[in-house]
């Protein structure tokens, strides 16, 4: 593409047989392409021989052009491209598109060089490997490829997604971006926020979300240390998949209402499990099921292997089948008693113990998605011309953006405050002091997401309801933000948890 042309050269190519135009100082010859243009021939003929930059960006995302690079025949003499094409790993230069700690000249007390290295490495990885696969799977509904799982395993990404801990010691993490021994909850936050930039909510859960919520029960509660290590190795190497199976049609929020039973055999060596589970993420492709069951005097948690009597089938939901949402039936499944996680009849502690991290991870994702939506809206408002003005020139639209930015920034700051407590509070104190605040934070983040999703669709108009093109991220977020408002604890339940924890801490004396 070394040839250069004047604007007069381009202007001559506005005939039936020869159709050229300019976009962003580049000259395109679409003479042979007009019939294939998805938007029809007429709109291309209207801009023949002209600079079509404004008309193009009024309708299209920049990425569209990269599909048609072979139509570009040269550049305009003495003119330079103004549009920025992001490269893998780049930070966005759009205001509020990155958290303040990544936005010069803002300072932040929480992040050091290892956080910056990890952020950079994970962004490159996401841009190069996760996003292309996520977008493809989101469309075709297939499950995550073994190739991507293997790649994540090799880079220690699967390990890091379980949060800080001994399992990271000695593991090479994204080319040594961070030492396992120094990995803290801010590194964990970065992993959570960078990963969701693939903009595919269904695939996001399909990408080993079952492991994030299920493996921790094995890591913290399996008594046989050798077996525990073997299972962790299988999962971290990507050879085996695991999920958390608590919810049933009969009981979701009210975990105590579970009806799946586990009855001990007469010789006391096995449990026989019968029952069902509903909406289990990654269940269809899992080998291990961390399962909530009813034993004689309460709830217990068993690690159940796929085998005789375990059946899984996909459930269709409003996000992509790539998530692997599953209905499970257990029919006289024989489970060795060694597979009991934690104590018999005290499984509620196993179930509750992981909730803080699960909910906090979901806030990381929701907050980052809100930010991406803010970025999309800011870009769109500067491109879209209505009534002869850019959308951004409408005060009503600026008010919507102000609300969206404020909601995003306030939740990121609250999230960082809570994350700092997680880094500095003994694990046993976290249940007492952070269960309520994390519940309130998740409730508030998904309420904010509701507002952001709603306003963003208004800003994008029809495109906000269209799965391809300019508004595809907005459509996806509006269709899927509710998953975070229900999964891991519904808003009402979490709000109530937060207030009940505050009630317990009220001073005894009347105020
Ligand atoms: C796509 C998807 C994936 C999931 N993945 C998993 C998984 O991997 N593993 C797993 O175990 N579960 C999973 N779940 C289940 C999820 O955690 C439950 O759906 C959730 O806990 C809510 O339970 P429920 O749907 O039975 O709603 P219910 O408990 O029937 O509640 C319905 C509504 O009632 C209201 N409500 C309930 N209790 C109260 C209260 N105390 N006060 C006020 N209002 C209340 C809330 O508005 C709530 O949304 C998944 C669900 C979905 C949809």
TrEMBL record:
<dbReference type="GO" id="GO:0003995">
    <property type="term" value="F:acyl-CoA dehydrogenase activity"/>
</dbReference>
<dbReference type="GO" id="GO:0020037">
    <property type="term" value="F:heme binding"/>
</dbReference>
<keyword id="KW-0274">FAD</keyword>
<dbReference type="InterPro" id="IPR037069">
    <property type="entry name" value="AcylCoA_DH/ox_N_sf"/>
</dbReference>
<dbReference type="GO" id="GO:0033539">
    <property type="term" value="P:fatty acid beta-oxidation using acyl-CoA dehydrogenase"/>
</dbReference>
<dbReference type="InterPro" id="IPR036400">
    <property type="entry name" value="Cyt_B5-like_heme/steroid_sf"/>
</dbReference>
<dbReference type="InterPro" id="IPR006089">
    <property type="entry name" value="Acyl-CoA_DH_CS"/>
</dbReference>
<dbReference type="Pfam" id="PF02770">
    <property type="entry name" value="Acyl-CoA_dh_M"/>
</dbReference>
<keyword id="KW-0285">Flavoprotein</keyword>
<dbReference type="InterPro" id="IPR009100">
    <property type="entry name" value="AcylCoA_DH/oxidase_NM_dom_sf"/>
</dbReference>
<feature type="domain" description="Cytochrome b5 heme-binding">
    <location>
        <begin position="2"/>
        <end position="77"/>
    </location>
</feature>
<dbReference type="InterPro" id="IPR036250">
    <property type="entry name" value="AcylCo_DH-like_C"/>
</dbReference>
<dbReference type="Pfam" id="PF00173">
    <property type="entry name" value="Cyt-b5"/>
</dbReference>
<dbReference type="InterPro" id="IPR009075">
    <property type="entry name" value="AcylCo_DH/oxidase_C"/>
</dbReference>
<keyword id="KW-0560">Oxidoreductase</keyword>
<dbReference type="InterPro" id="IPR046373">
    <property type="entry name" value="Acyl-CoA_Oxase/DH_mid-dom_sf"/>
</dbReference>
<dbReference type="InterPro" id="IPR018506">
    <property type="entry name" value="Cyt_B5_heme-BS"/>
</dbReference>
<dbReference type="InterPro" id="IPR001199">
    <property type="entry name" value="Cyt_B5-like_heme/steroid-bd"/>
</dbReference>
<protein>
    <submittedName>
        <fullName>Acyl-CoA dehydrogenase/oxidase</fullName>
    </submittedName>
</protein>
<dbReference type="GO" id="GO:0046872">
    <property type="term" value="F:metal ion binding"/>
</dbReference>
<keyword id="KW-0349">Heme</keyword>
<dbReference type="GO" id="GO:0005737">
    <property type="term" value="C:cytoplasm"/>
</dbReference>
<comment type="similarity">
    <text>Belongs to the acyl-CoA dehydrogenase family.</text>
</comment>
<dbReference type="InterPro" id="IPR050741">
    <property type="entry name" value="Acyl-CoA_dehydrogenase"/>
</dbReference>
<dbReference type="GO" id="GO:0050660">
    <property type="term" value="F:flavin adenine dinucleotide binding"/>
</dbReference>
<dbReference type="InterPro" id="IPR006091">
    <property type="entry name" value="Acyl-CoA_Oxase/DH_mid-dom"/>
</dbReference>
<keyword id="KW-0408">Iron</keyword>
<keyword id="KW-0479">Metal-binding</keyword>
<dbReference type="Pfam" id="PF00441">
    <property type="entry name" value="Acyl-CoA_dh_1"/>
</dbReference>
